[in-house]
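Changelog excerpt: complex records now keep ligands as SMILES alongside chain sequences, and the structure block spans every component. Example after the change:
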Amino acid sequence: MHEIILKTIERICSYVPEERVLRDEPMSRHTSFRIGGPAAAFVTVNDEKELAAVMAAVTDAGAEHMMIGNGSNLLVSDEGYPGIMIKLGGDFETITRDADDPCIVRAGAAMLMSRVSAFLTENGLSGFEFASGIPGSIGGAVFMNAGAYGGEIRDVVRAVRVMDADGKNLRTLSNEEMQFSYRHSVAEDAGILILSAEMELKEDDPDEIAARVAELQFKRNSKQPVNYPSAGSTFKRPVGGYAAALIEQSGLKGYTAGGAQVSEKHSGFVINIGGASCEDVLAVMRHVRETVLSDSGILLEPEVRLINCSL
Ligand SMILES: Cc1cc2nc3c(=O)[nH]c(=O)nc-3n(C[C@H](O)[C@H](O)[C@H](O)COP(=O)(O)OP(=O)(O)OC[C@H]3O[C@@H](n4cnc5c(N)ncnc54)[C@H](O)[C@@H]3O)c2cc1C
């Protein structure tokens, strides 16, 4: 292991208890694709103080690092990740309703979308139904303005508590300051860390909200290969078309390399049909890109984030 990484891990251990600093941790345990070799270290931080100290340590040392949410949009190399993966837990897994305004809710970045949805449904708060089936965390969803069924996270987020990548400058950004666009926010450009999101919802009947959530879940389950590990839509929606339709038109449904396959159920998904390596997925993605480009002239861009690997 690189000397810088070793020294940084040592320093991190003076701020974060040893049991939350995992060495050579297989990333296949932390990604929805169930793919990825070991990260040099996988650190779970439980509060803002720990996070600030860890971010200062990696910044000072110039150590390679990245933040991980629920790992549902990542394809990690079979070689693993040579740096430090940082995940939020503890205080970042809370959700509270504002004492003065019952329509305002604050969710920590580590909260899963499904748990946020369950909380809002129970409390009779509507507006988040579209996001209930997205298998990511609030942090990951805000980072990339996740969306589904006509809604996007920017539609409900009022403000976001953030920290700079060096662990300094804790502040709150407004919805406008987040500069949300299609699967993108300012956090990506500026390397900003998302700590929590303040959302504004509307009061509604819990049973009606639950019915809408169930309907969208049914749609999702009937259209998407939810029984196989994947990272969701593999490619971004290109201008003037849909990746899934282009892939299907090129006759690539079911195209397989090793354990990776273009889903028969939804051609926008590359799935892990069993023991897929990162290289298998990349082989499928490369073939899909080349074939669609030669058939339609459209170059598909990956939506899945490629970690320590490339097309
Ligand atoms: C079956 C399936 C269905 C899916 N359906 C949808 C869908 O309908 N709509 C949709 O938009 N996506 C969908 N996805 C993709 C994925 O769930 C979303 O992109 C989700 O927002 C990723 O969140 P995450 O917490 O898993 O982030 P990760 O995959 O862990 O990370 C994604 C990026 O966010 C960054 N990040 C994560 N947390 C933070 C933080 N706190 N601060 C700063 N940066 C952070 C990471 O560094 C990384 O660059 C689907 C995925 C699967 C597997």
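The domain at 94-221 is CATH 3.30.465.10 (Uridine Diphospho-n-acetylenolpyruvylglucosamine Reductase; domain 3). The first helix runs from residue 3 to 12.
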